[in-house]
User: Fold this.
Amino acid sequence: MSAGKVAVLGAGSWGTAFSIVLADAGNDVALWARREEVAATINAERANVDYLPGIQLPPTVSATHDVEQALAGAEVVVFATPSQTFRANLAEWAPHVPAQAVMVSLMKGVELGTLKRMSEVVQEVTGAGEERIAVVSGPNLAKEIARREPAASVVACADEDVAKQLQARMHSAAFRPYTSVDVLGCELGGAYKNVVALSVGMAVGLGFGDNSTASIITRGLAETARLAMRLGANPLTLMGLAGLGDLVATCSSPLSRNRTFGEKLGLGMSTEDIYASTRQVAEGAKSCSSLRALADSQGVDAPIAIYVDDVVAGRITVLQMMDEILARAPKAETD
Assistant:
């Protein structure tokens, strides 16, 4: 798979940042924007001023509002939209995706209702084989990636050769991708860390310090691993970039949308007020109920997902959540 055209569908902060990665690696990138004015501004000013102000885009990134134009001749198609609207979008895009193109998900969520991971949604909607479906996951905060700060990630595909080909198309001076065949583990690690980050943000909003946040991160990793391994993931994936790495970055950085969302909950804002105050999507707030349901369907104990879902839905307060977590019956750490 030689360098050529890559279509990136979604011109939010992560889609735009990943377009920079792809361009730096030698690809011509067509960046599709849902809003026509965003595409026009990107092309005129060479920057996405709505999501990544001050970051100049490489000349090999061009934006368009026409999805057919973006997809025409693309060898790789990258999806970077909110996970809960992805299926509807993909149903419109699928007829225009080139027949042999490899499709890559950057999304970190589990679909409400179906409890499907994004790679499963791609397979269902497009009918593509697993060798044409990949995911990218890791500690990749969009603003830092866009600034070309050194970072690593995982590109996972059931076909290892395809993962290696994608790796070559993403490897730039500042971005180091590793390969994996554990698509399931990478996706669950990416989705679950958002829920854990919400919980960490709540603790920060309440004024708690590093002991509290470290405890939540560690127990969140254990919860993620329980579910992922029950579903068949490789436990080493959860110890790697798509697991622990992504978890630490998302829980620790003020750049994290999910941690920031949780912090606002901890400060007393309601979910509705937070949604009204930002155009950015915190995937954990949308996926906490689906991850809770997925864990329940597998008989996996998932207290963080349960309590975060209850707080986001307004059934309990953040203080009640902390009290109830601490009141849980003590047990061995490895149970």
The beta strands are 5-9, 28-32, 61-64, 76-79, 102-105, 133-137, 151-157, 175-180. The chain has two domains: 5-181, 190-326. The mean pLDDT is 95. The CA atoms of residues 81 and 89 lie 9 Å apart.
